[in-house]
Amino acid sequence: MFTFKKSVTALAIAASLGLAMPAMAGNNDGNIAGTVVDARTQQSVSGAEVILKNIATGYTKSLTTSANGSYRLGNLPVGTYNVSLQVAGYEPVSQGDITVSIGATTNVDLNLVAEGDNIEKIEVHGSAFSMVDVTSSESALNIGAVELSRIPVPRNLTSVALLAPGVTQGDARFGNYASFGGASVAENSVYINGLNVTNFRNGLGFSNVPFEFYDQFQVKTGGYSAEFGRSTGGVVNAVTKRGSNEFKFGANVYWQPADLREQSPNSKKTNGEYYIYNGDDERSEMQGNIYASGAIIQDTLFFYAIYNPRDISNDYTNGEKTTYNEATGDDAFWGGKIDWQISENHLLELLAFSDSATTSTDNFLYEPRTYNSTSFEETGGDNWSLKYTGYITDDFTVSALYGENEYTLTTKSNIQNDCELFYDTRDVQELGFTSSGCATSNDYIVEDGNDKREAMRIDFGYILGDHEIRFGFDSETNTSGSVQAYSGPDGKYWFLYDGTPGATLSNGAVIPEGVTQYSRSRLRTVSGNFETEATAMYIEDTWTVTDNLTIKLGVRNETFDNKNGEGETFAKIDNMIAPRFGLAWDPTGEGDSKVFVNIGRYFLPVANNTNVRLSGNEYDVYQFFELEGVNVNDYNGIPYLTAINGAQIGADQFNADGSVPDVSGIVDQDLDPMYQDEFMLGYQAVIGEGWSWGVKGIRRELNGAIDDMTISHVTQAKYGCDHPGGGGYVLGNPGEDMTIKADTDCDHEVDTFVTLTGEELGYPTATRTYNALEFTLDRQWDDVWSMSASYTWSKSYGNSEGLVKSDNAQEDAGLTQDFDFPDLMDGAYGNLPNDKRHQFKVYGSYSLTDNLLIGANFSLQSGRPITALGIGHPNGIPDYGDTYYLCTADCATDDPTYAFSPRGTFGETPWIARLDLSASYTMEFADSYEVNFRADIFNVLDAHSTTRVNEIAELGEIGQAEPDFGLTSGYQTPRYVQFSASIRF
């Protein structure tokens, strides 16, 4: 039987539940909302003064309930709050431990008991939270530093993202970054305290901030609001720690000893030689953190400062066990935050940090161990942001942010001008290995580069009855400076090949009779400063239609303006309208279940890499020569080759001629943006005290893509002229018509605007489709244990992975080998590299005693599709690149026979299982300081599953089998151990 006392109890408990609502949630803050009612009559109480107080900083803000008894306050700094009110004729009400999380709204309903009323009082606190947010249609994982401290997670932002369902680890050659919803790893955005810190050059990576500096994370896997854009993957939204009225000081150290790190297996060729040698790999890491925080002025001005010294060493060999490398890095990170609570209506916060770092790598001959050279890689830079928050009225808020984000990309060597680079692919090698010469880096590039982002945004929030309206504007000016060349005295990279007389080379020339070996040199330089301006406006309304139904309607309008090295616009796309719709319905009205729908469109800008490569003064030329022999030379005791070249074979092959091209001749004048449409439908419900489960279906479709395509095959057929610029590449939308200025009189200058149809060009439309079903089961922390589990079935398929290409580890964002020639895309449709069909994830923790805590993190996922790549095609041999045809007969004739080998039809790599465990012991002394000792073991079972294989099935010439095809080229990270100790005052 329903009783009044029980109803009050239920209301009180409901008041303690923090509901993570999307309404008015800024990108680095949170909100509190609720309703004040008379506990006996259940009538709303208007005009009541609600007082919010941040327990740590003393920040206090008062506001008045509306006519329907509701109150809302957005743009609150994350943290723990106390909510109280006093109304004449009622008992005072106060609730503490109300947690405000990043990007979410905590719901706190307050029930007033009349003075003298004998209703039983229920004392509750807001530290508990709702297992089901019945107002949100977004897909996101909110997790804080406290929760992460209970489970074994590698101390980096990507590992946090990988806890979310549907997020997988991408190709290790890109840095092991996260792939969201089948997208490439270069399509994500990362924000720290509202500042975008994503690498805008090619989308790979972000500013490197130590784990200790972070306070909370929000991993958005889909359905995010109109406030967020420039991403077709996912968004990681993080906030750092801040000072409080209590002075705090602490230090910790994290150590990964080399002696407790296992090695991956070796991979051997059929002849017994090493393909991948890991037997001498050795890595150790020591990091410390020293931090302090407190009040400069009580209740008003606060600071947080951190210093993070690092000592990292990584020793490894090349694949063939011919060179040995010792890489070290010991640059310290520093960071800090200042918060100024000017008044209850005005807040100011300053963030500053530097992640500048230099990694030096000493290179040795493997045996005897002779020093050769030292290379240097410089990364990171200085970063800062200033944010203002103003509460103009109870219903109107404003926030404004300006910040700068820097990233250095400099690679150099102490011998970069001393000798040339050689790559010997011949069957008989004088040195017995392929690579030699004065290498500067793994990709042999000498680069002096730097990127700088200047970001500004202003956001407004307005409450109008049942509508919570948010609107704003943001702008980024992203500048890339770059000077690139190959190392060596003349900047050339030489390749040596076995050849067959009569075979055709990529420059169109035929190998002469009697020539069985040839060389190819490549000279490539790039320089300039390139700018992109990106702006966006948005408006979004979260409408509480009824107590059980919430609808979110939003729209975002974006503009991208990419400029060449002379500051001239070469690619501008505006009026990109991105609608967002979300619906959340509580079918029972009990606040313990919901059905939700989310539909949205998301645009991705043209990466600055495209500015540098396509619109800069890139010079790229191949030359082919008859190879008459080689000289074996010695540098610092290490042998290297020089070629004895005979006659040049054919003409120079110009891939780029060094001039800044006419922008109307390199970009489709009707260029459409790259965008993705997403649809989600899901259900979530509480199934017991502290338990919830959910199911969600997701579909993502890449409906527009941008890439460079050669058009000379069409201009030759129509006008008898190659398109200028070396290779005749134009940026456009594959499969669509193209309007450009072409060379119609063969004077090597563009002169006339023409429209080339999609049918004439012969390229397929770029496609990528992601379908998924996600199942989740969660058990919230109750001071004893917690658990989160998920299973995701997904399928990612199409002919375009996205901005980067895992097949050949090409990070040339927006300008990959895809769509360079029509024949390269014949067979490209299939299961894409980030298609991991099955994913299981389980993580949690258990408190054995008040002092001893254990944690576990387990994942199991299916493998990556395998493709067999050739170099020929029934239409002829493309100038370069991998095809999906393998020659099976008559390969040296004019009429070879091919077998079709579409993408992903050679099976998958093995399943990958990983179990991580942790144990920590905490001791407190006289309430004045706390000491913690901890051990984490990652990949406890030391599993060695293959993550990647060599997919090149032909090498050098069509029909010439690559003997290393299918060999393992990458393993999962082997077992390693991390010890840590910390003290906090």
UniProtKB/TrEMBL annotation:
- Sequence ranges assigned to domain TonB-dependent receptor plug in this UniProt record: 143-235
InterPro entries the UniProt entry points to = Beta-barrel_TonB_sf, Carb-bd-like_fold, Oar-like_b-barrel, Plug_dom, Plug_dom_sf, TonB-dep_rcpt-like, TonB_rcpt_CS
- Give the signal peptide, or none: 1-25
Q: Which spans of this chain does the record mark as coiled coil? A: none
Q: Major place of localization? A: membrane
* Matching SUPFAM superfamilies: Porins, Starch-binding domain-like
Q: How does it sit in the membrane?
A: Multi-pass membrane protein
Keywords assigned by UniProt? Cell outer membrane, Membrane, Signal, TonB box, Transmembrane, Transmembrane beta strand, Transport
Every copy of the TonB-dependent transporter Oar-like beta-barrel domain together lies at 278-562, 571-978
**One of the GO BP terms on file:** siderophore transmembrane transport
| Source organism, top-level taxon | Bacteria
Q: List localization entries.
A: Cell outer membrane
Question: From the Swiss-Prot or TrEMBL record, what is one GO molecular function term?
Answer: siderophore uptake transmembrane transporter activity
What GO CC annotations are associated with the protein? cell outer membrane
The cross-references to PROSITE patterns, in alphabetical order and at most eight, read: TONB_DEPENDENT_REC_2, TONB_DEPENDENT_REC_3
TonB C-terminal box, short sequence motif: residues: 968-985
What residue intervals traverse the membrane?
Answer: none
Give the record's family classification: Belongs to the TonB-dependent receptor family.
PANTHER family linked? OAR PROTEIN (PTHR30069:SF46), TONB-DEPENDENT OUTER MEMBRANE RECEPTOR (PTHR30069)
Supply the name of the protein: Oar protein
